[in-house]
Design brief:
Elements: H1 4-8, H2 26-33, E1 45-54, H3 57-63, E2 70-75, H4 79-99, H5 117-152, H6 156-159, E3 170-179, E4 182-191, E5 193-195, E6 214-217, E7 225-230, H7 232-237, E8 241-243, H8 252-258, H9 264-270, E9 274-276, H10 280-285, H11 294-304, E10 307-320
Parallel strand pairs: 9-10
Antiparallel strand pairs: 1-2, 1-10, 3-4, 5-8, 6-7, 7-10
Helix pairs in contact: 2-4, 4-5
Length: 321
């Protein structure tokens, strides 16, 4: 389900070596069986968007983006499979923290030495979950492509849909970084953050290596999302990382309360945005008011020089899990 060139435009070529499915619990496997190719709930989405603004013509051209272009953005992960892997190992890591005498300020920061059996098992399981997530997005992209061709009655060539980039946003990876002038091997944890490697980085495909890695920053369903590019300053300041999204300003419970008496779908429709969701509760939880303005968030990382704005994408149609 996909094209050969998709692999080069996917972080880690879509597969992390060292995954060990034998460690995965039956519960995690059961949860994941029926969820491959699904969005899930929460802030996950599939959006039909259009490129409203181009900030960097050269980089946008390298990414295949141009003003007025229609794009599709997919935001989802490893579903119940990855969630269960995390749940299983939180229990195990709490015990490991006590075993290795690690003092915790918060039990959800439970951890173990990286060379311990507990940590090695977690890393092998996490890699399996990451691989599941890349496969999940590939399936969704494949079926989206098929749906578009069916509805429009056109061929793959006429559709012209190709992958810009597929990048993780909850992952831990072993990478080389320069610390105090020396190259060191680090375990970089990106939780609600995304990788943003600069031009020339060897892990990037040759087609875009001269400009840098595409960085996808999703916003809320009523405003916009952005494509950025990684910069060298990010390697020294943030271990080659940038923000992942807008971030909430109110809890889901408060959002539901604030949405009472409102027709969120109609408000979006009045803005020219068609939305489809599993239920009204999802729309209430994910309404624009519940999030920071993505433009302000992106301006922060842009002005800090850790990633740079390339294009702004505005929503036309939104599918929420």
């Amino acid at each position: 389900m996909g094209d050969e060139e998709d692999l080069a435009h996917t972080e880690s070529n879509g597969c992390m070596d060292g995954a060990d499915p034998s460690i995965i619990s039956d519960k995690a496997l059961d949860r994941g069986k029926a969820q491959q190719g699904t969005l899930g709930s929460g802030n996950h989405f599939l959006e039909i968007q259009y490129v409203s603004d181009i900030y960097d013509e050269k980089t946008a051209g390298a990414f295949g983006l141009f003003e007025g272009q229609v794009t599709i953005m997919i935001h989802t992960g490893s579903r119940g499979f990855g969630h269960q892997v995390c749940t299983d190992f939180l229990v195990r890591m709490e015990k490991a923290s006590r075993k290795y005498g690690i003092s915790l300020h918060d039990k959800e920061l439970a951890c173990a030495p990286v060379n311990s059996q507990e940590a090695e098992d977690y890393i092998a399981s996490m890699k399996a979950a990451a691989n599941y997530a890349w496969a999940n997005r590939q399936c969704i992209m494949h079926w989206t492509k098929g749906s578009a061709m069916k509805v429009l009655g056109i061929s793959p060539k006429e559709l012209g849909l190709s992958l810009v980039y597929d990048v993780a946003h909850n992952i831990a990876k072993v990478e080389d970084h320069v610390i105090d002038g020396k190259k060191r091997k680090l375990m970089v944890h990106r939780k609600g953050a995304t990788r943003a490697f600069p031009a020339g980085h060897p892990e990037l495909p040759e087609t875009i290596r001269h400009v840098g890695q595409p960085v996808l920053i999703p916003g809320d369903m009523g405003r916009a999302s952005f494509v950025l590019v990684g910069l060298e300053k990010g390697m020294t300041d943030t271990f080659g990382s940038t923000c992942h999204g807008a971030g909430r300003v109110m809890s889901r419970h408060k959002a539901i309360k604030m949405a009472k008496g409102r027709a969120i779908w109609r408000e979006l429709e009045d803005m020219g945005i068609i939305v489809m969701s599993a239920g009204r509760r999802t729309l209430a939880e994910e309404m624009s008011d519940a999030y920071k303005d993505i433009s302000n968030v992106v301006d922060v990382v842009h002005n800090a020089g850790i990633s740079s704005k390339v294009a702004k994408l505005r929503p036309l149609g939104v599918v929420k899990g």
